[in-house]
Amino acid sequence: MNIPHDISQYNHHFKDYTELRVQENRVARISLTNGDVTGNVSSAQSGVSARVFKDGNWGFSSAPEFNDHSVGRVVKSSTENVQFMNLKDTSRCGLILPDTMADYEMDFSTKKPRENQKYWVDFAREVDGYLEKKFPELLSRNVVVAGTDMEKSLSTSDGSKSYSLTPRSFLVVSVAIEKDGNPVNLYEFFGGLGQMEDNLLLPSDYFPKLDELVGRLKQKADGIFPKAGLQNVILDADLAGILAHEAIGHTTEADLVLGGSVAGDLMGQEVVSPLITLIDYANTYADKTCPVP
Length: 293
Hints:
This protein has 293 residues and is α+β, with helices and mostly antiparallel strands. Helices cover 26% and strands 34% of the residues. It has 2 domains: 8-223, PmbA/TldD fold; 232-293, no CATH class. Strand 1 (17-33) and strand 2 form a beta hairpin. Residues 19-80 form the Metalloprotease TldD/E N-terminal domain. This is Peptidase U62 modulator of DNA gyrase.
């Protein structure tokens, strides 16, 4: 299904304040284990949803089909749902939605010709073949090439419109080696924002990174387990950042702050130590779009 960039032609179904959204998620995934293709999937899921606001409450409904009839049915169902909610909640909270209008488009799709599944199977085979030839001592090799496209189109009764296509694609390599009769594993992700044609250019681009991955795997295999009990440790910035994000960062994310997070009034205050700085990169950092906008 090709989602229209503008779905405002369906606004004639609206009676109260309504938000209409059409979305399609497309997934392509190829998996290899020790050179054998264990997965080759290409799928798409789509649907339409609407939510209606009236007298302080929301009504929501959705359907898997996208056409004029299903849109009308979804909007009608959402309207009936909010009417039902208002029968149960007569407080009429007095909430008034802001009167705004916006028109926004964000399309990160590739400008290159799209490759078929066989191309990506061959891509994964070449990556696996390099590992097999250069590192025959590996106990196992797993190579995954995957891409996900999230395409959305939005229209509201106040005239706002939005379209976005946010693709992500990855090469995932997991390798294992045997040490003292036990397997030791390590994996790495390569890729990020963008479709596979933009992120995964040539298998040979990753050969130096695969050398590094196997090198770290061997270092891990030669490592020792820490002693049990309380220990003083120095955390690498990557790990410390993850822990700080889980403990504190979620409460400072922009959408949660707007929703009433307990951290909403604590901007600029010290967190544990003046050496720690937390920033919510919601969309852009260093003039580049974040991998997960």
